[in-house]
Amino acid sequence: MKTTLTILFLSMIQIAECQQSIYDLWKEADEIVETFHFDLDKNIDGNYIVNVRHYKESGLYFTRNNNNAYKTIGELLSYYGFDYNHQNDTLLFSFHRNEFEVWRVSAYSKNQQVMYYFSWHENKLTEIPKEEFSEVDLYVENIEKTIYADDIDKIKELILNWGPAFTETSTSCAYRIVIKNGQIQFPTKCLTYKIY
């Protein structure tokens, strides 16, 4: 009887974990965030350098920015089959947006990597096939994989090698979440940079 109750209890916990939406995971992970802002500037000699502002904060991203859009994106990621190990995984969600909209979304787990265009007007994600990646798509993928690997120095190097952004109105934001033994490991990481 005791064994049956234990198995039932553990099954209920597992079901509850599976029912947590991606957006709810984002909001929970937003509790304590280590933030890195990467800016490409020129030094006194006129050479490009990467400045990094780094600090910790809470309620950084999903509790303050475009809640409805991110909720929709989280639901669509689940609908299109993005999943992760709720017990032990490293996740990366990357959003490339201009001042009006999120227009590219990437999601990584240990077993999955997907990149989509997001349409605000249609509330839909359209997968970007790897064989159709442009030079910028390949660069973005390289930066995202480096963020996923948590290699800050390599990120600085990649941004420096790419050069200045084409526009100051677009921003890329990557949100890295590590889960161990079913618990989010704090602080999570948020990294912002400009590339377009």
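The above is record 1. Record 2 follows with the same two-line structure.
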Amino acid sequence: MVLFVHHLINGIFKMKINIILLASMLAISGCSSNKPPICNNKAKIGNSVYDIPIFKKEDGRYLAGYPFYTWTDKADFIDTDACDKLNP
């Protein structure tokens, strides 16, 4: 019985270490970028207006968001003046 409990505790400890390592690796290599945004567009979400970081502008669309990026159309923003001043 003592040996069984010892193996059980040892197995749980190893499982926790594996989960911590996996979470750390995902956090380090996730969808984040080390490049700063090139500009900010304004978007209305609910009743508030937020500055949305833009990381790339291409064909009238914006690569927006942090830490998860998505291609967004110009119509999704209420103010794109800051990014429209940049060269495409």
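The CA atoms of residues 32 and 67 lie 5 Å apart.
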